[in-house]
Design brief:
The protein is mainly α and 464 residues long. 66% of the residues lie in helices and 4% in strands. The chain contains 17 helices and six strands. The strands form three sheets. Strands 1-2 form a two-stranded antiparallel ribbon. A two-stranded antiparallel sheet has the order 3-4. It has a two-stranded antiparallel sheet with strand order 5-6. Helix 1 runs antiparallel to helix 2.
């Protein structure tokens, strides 16, 4: 075995030699801080687990990538002065490990990527909008949410290797399947009366949807019958797991992404295996229809539950949540018209009742406190104006164009599977932005950073 030069960075992590002392000091500091704020036994346990994760990620950054994905499926947060979720902790440790590797290795802190200009434009556009902020505090916090996602993108882009992408996607797929099995059990145990969200909580729908989009191209282009059956079983489990969430927006997104992925797959297969691709798409489409019939027959309340209602007058009058969403969209559009260039300021929609007190007279105002427009396009349009929305589109469509080019360049089956899945994920971001919430917060932000990073790192390498 060849000796590793002293103090050099190797691909699998940090080689600790004369640099062990500052590492140990950093670990001790982390331990003191975590344990000092661990005023409850559960927080102490969380601190110990966090410290263990830190040591593991510090030693091998590849572990951090898989831990980051796994942490998305555990909806647990701890109050250490501010609420931190498990994936926040893992992402922070991943960043520290990445930073130390770069500093010690003597290389640049960030690799240049094709998305540098769109990211810079987007960050500047968001920053300019803060000039109009009424509540600068919440504006800066919201801005930092975005910066956190962009920094995570650079960390992931500098840590993921092309040869590791398939393993990461398969790991995400398998862990989502396990979570979906648990979610289905919850759904069945309550006779389909609840919106089953498993261990991940509210983000369960977007996590399961992401896995379905990854899984679909794996089935379309798979030629070995045994693997095809295995992938189809995984797909059906994920589909039932998504159904168990009873999330209308996720169903719409799945339908759009299914059609889009089918179309680009048929276009790709036109020269070689068109009939083969059509057959696979038809078979899986029938599986989806059969699954809908089965779950609707076994649980008649399933379709009714898609109409989510809340009391607008306690115990007297109910309304569908769609009406609330339309009201938020209407308010966001009117807010945009007040300042169409730079908006009212990033994060200010959370304070819309302060900015526009006349809205308090509307009966829907009781649902507006702390909410965003539930529409990514209107989220940026109302708060950052046309400049901010242009920055968002510049970033997303630059990445989409990059992936489309790589998809067209892919010749090997494995490359086609991966590139089709990635372009499907970016299409999910684009499509859901028209009717769903923001992509720069919480689990959605972590996923977006992962999508962008893998899109940049991926290179078609396999032969046809």
């Amino acid at each position: 075995m060849n000796a590793v030069p002293s103090g050099k960075v190797i691909d699998d992590g940090l080689y600790l030699t004369q640099h062990a002392i500052p590492f140990c000091l950093l670990v001790i500091f982390q331990s003191v801080v975590l344990i000092a704020f661990a005023n409850k036994p559960i927080n102490l346990l969380f601190s110990i687990v966090s410290l263990s994760i830190f040591l593991l990620v510090l030693n091998n950054i590849r572990y951090g990538l898989y831990l980051l994905i796994a942490s998305l499926f555990l909806d647990y947060s701890v109050n250490l002065g501010m609420y931190l979720r498990l994936f926040d902790i893992t992402g922070l440790f991943l960043f520290i490990s990445y930073l130390l590797r770069r500093l010690i290795g003597g290389g640049t802190l960030m690799n240049r990527t094709p998305l540098d200009k769109p990211i810079l434009f987007f960050a500047i556009a968001l920053g300019i909008s803060l000039i109009n902020s009424v509540d600068l505090h919440i504006g800066i916090i919201t801005y930092l949410w975005h910066i956190q996602v962009l920094v995570l993108f650079y960390v992931l882009a500098g840590s993921i290797q092309t040869t590791e992408i398939k393993n990461l996607l398969v790991f995400f797929l398998l862990i989502t399947v396990l979570h979906s099995v648990y979610n289905i059990i919850l759904f069945i145990s309550t006779n389909g009366t609840i919106r089953a969200m498993g261990l991940a909580g509210v983000p369960t729908d977007v996590l399961t949807l992401t896995a379905l989009i990854i899984c679909y191209p794996l089935y379309i282009y798979e030629k070995q019958m045994a693997r095809k059956i295995f992938v189809s079983i995984i797909f059906i489990i994920l589909l039932f797991g998504l159904m168990a969430t009873k999330t209308r927006g996720a169903f719409i997104s799945f339908a759009l992404c299914f059609v889009f992925t089918s179309l680009i797959s048929l276009r790709k297969a036109r020269k070689t295996a068109l009939r083969f691709a059509i057959g696979n798409i038809v078979v899986l489409s029938l599986c989806i229809l059969i699954s809908l019939v089965v779950i609707s027959s076994l649980y008649p309340s399933f379709l009714k539950a898609l109409s989510h209602q809340v009391y607008i007058v306690p115990g007297v009058q109910k309304i569908d949540t769609t009406q609330i969403r339309f009201f938020l969209w209407n308010v966001a559009l009117k807010t945009f018209l007040q300042n169409p260039i730079f908006g009212i300021g990033l994060g200010q929609f959370y304070r819309i009742l302060v900015i526009s007190p006349e809205l308090r007279l509307n009966i829907f105002s009781i649902f507006m406190r702390g909410l965003d427009p539930h529409n990514t396009v209107l989220y940026y349009l109302s708060q950052t104006g046309l400049v901010g929305l242009l920055g968002f589109f510049y970033l997303i469509f630059s990445c989409f164009g990059l992936l489309l080019r790589k998809f067209n360049e892919s010749e090997g089956v494995e490359d086609i599977k991966i590139s089709a899945a990635l372009i499907g994920l970016l299409f999910l971001v684009i499509a859901s932005s028209l009717y769903a919430g923001e992509w720069f917060y919480g689990v959605g932000g972590e996923l977006l950073a992962l999508f962008l990073a893998v899109a940049v790192v991926f290179k078609p390498i396999s032969k046809p």
